[in-house]
Design a protein that fits this description.
- It is a single chain.
- By secondary structure, this protein is of the alpha+beta class.
- It is built from 1 helix and 10 strands; from the N terminus they run αββββββββββ.
- The chain folds into 2 domains: about 40 residues; about 100 residues, Beta Barrel (Lipocalin).
- It has an 8-stranded antiparallel beta barrel with strand order 3-4-5-6-7-8-9-10. A two-stranded antiparallel sheet has the order 1-2.
């Protein structure tokens, strides 16, 4: 009786297990390859072709993808939790500001002040006061300031 049970039951059990394992591995492979194809690093290009996961964003003034956090002029908010980064054209007639609030192209108003090139909901002014650059809103509220390195 025991021999008859094992000769009939054991092969059936092994067959069911093998079918289940084969089904799961095929299903898992398909699911995994689908996830990998959608989550490839660098597969997140914007409309200009900049790869945001690598820190790149479009610069209107430079007409290319840049990493704004590598720009030489870096400003910090009061809490020192966010940065704003500034690019000046070679002739210093324009400046481009990159921050969490948005990007803005500014034009030179005076030797120490840049104002928005065009009106937008994000109107900021870039000023140099006491040898330090600041970003402020039109209501004179400073929200980013250059930190001098000692």
């Amino acid at each position: 009786m025991k021999t008859h049970f094992f000769t009939l039951f054991l092969p059936s059990l092994l067959l069911i297990c093998m079918m289940g394992c084969n089904y799961n591995s095929t299903s898992h492979q398909t699911h995994t390859s689908y996830k990998l194809n959608n989550n490839i690093v660098g597969n997140d290009r914007d409309t200009h072709g900049c790869i945001s996961s690598a820190g790149y964003q479009w610069s209107e003034l430079q007409q290319q993808c840049i990493r704004s956090f590598e720009l030489p002029l870096q400003l910090l908010n009061q809490e020192k939790t966010f940065g704003a980064y500034v690019f000046f054209t070679a002739d210093t007639s324009k400046a481009e500001v990159f921050s969490k609030e948005g990007n803005s192209v500014l034009i030179k108003n005076t030797a120490n002040e840049f104002i928005p090139q065009s009106k937008s909901s994000y109107d900021i002014i870039l000023k140099k006061i006491n040898n330090s650059w600041i970003l402020e809103m039109p209501n004179d509220k400073i929200f980013y300031k250059e930190e001098k390195k000692h």
